[in-house]
Fold this sequence. Notes:
The chain is α/β, with parallel strands linked by helices. It has helices spanning 4-26, 51-65, 85-92, 105-113, 147-156, 171-182, 198-206, 217-225, 271-285, 288-297, 306-326; strands spanning 37-44, 69-76, 99-104, 124-139, 162-165, 191-194, 212-216, 229-234, 258-265, 300-305.
Amino acid sequence: MRNTHNTNAMRRQLLLAAGAAPVLGMIPRSLWAAPMFESIYMFIPAAPGGGWDGTGRAVEQVIRAAGLVGTVQFENVGGAGGMVGLPKFVNQQKGKPNAVMVGGSVMVGAGIANKSPVTIKDVVPLVRLTEEASVIAVPANSPYKTWQDLAAALKANPKAVSVAGGSAGGTDHLLLGMILRSLGANAKNAAYVAYAGGGAAVASIIGGQVQAGISGYSEFAEQIKGGRMRALAVSGNKRIPGVDVPTLQELGTNVTAANWRGLFGAPGISAQQRQALIDLFTKMHDTQAWRDLLEQRKWVDVFLAGDAFAKEVVADVTETETVMKELGLA
C-alpha cells in the first residue's frame, strides 16, 4: 500500500525548497555562507581609543559585516609603545590560529628604545593595512619656499635649522635623522626641538621660534589650510588622499617613513594557519566597505601581505636601529 503521508511530506519539502531558492538568491552570499573563522581574538597593545584600537575596531566592523567572521573578541593592554602588551600576546597566544595583534611602526622604535627582550620580530607578519604620513612644513613667511630650499639648508648646516616635532626618539625625530642621512649630513647634528604636545609645536612654528616642523599631517592640517604654514613634502610611500603635497621621493630625497599599521599572528602557528589569516584579511581588503572606510578616515592604503610584508618589517627594524644609533638613542 502506498504511504500517502510520506509522499505528501516529500512534496511539501520540494515545494518549500523551490520557494526558498529565489529568496536565497536575493540574499547576499555573505549573510548565509559559512564564515572563514568562527571567531577571532583581536589583541590591541594599546589603550582603547588610539590608532591601533581604531584600526582593530575598523577591521572588526568590516569582517563581521561581510560575514567573513562570526565573532571578534577584543583585549587591550597599553603601555610603552606596545612593549607592555606584546610579551603577553606572545606568551599567552602562542600557537593559536585565530589570534591576531594590531601593531605598527611605533612598536619598532619602542622595542629598540626600551631594549625589550620581546619585540615585533617575535610575532608573525600577516598584512600591512594603512599608513599615516608625516608632513614637513615651514611658517608661511619662511624664506624656504620649496623643499629644495630647506633641504639645501639642512645639508649645508643642520645645526642652523631648528625643527620642531614630538617627543625625542619618536617618529618625527627619526624622520629628521633619516632625511639628514639621505642628504649626506650627520644625523647627530640635527637641531631637533621636542614638544610634548602638538599645540606647542604648532605655536613654535607659527611664532617663528623654529624654522620648520614635522608631524602627522592631521596635526598641521588646519594651519596649512589656513595659510599659516606651508607644507613642503610628505614622507609616505604615496601622497595623502586629497592633499596636493608631493612625497620626499618625488622631490628627489630617497626617504619614506610613515606610521604604518598592520596585523600579526601569534608565534608558533603553521604556514597553513598563517595563510588562512592572510586570506581572511585579503578578502576584507577587497571589499567595498573597506575602501569606503579608508576614504572616510583618510587612511592611505598600503596593503601588503605575507612574505612581502615580513621583508618590509625586517627592513624597517634595521633602518630604525641604524637611525636611532646615529641619533644617540640606541
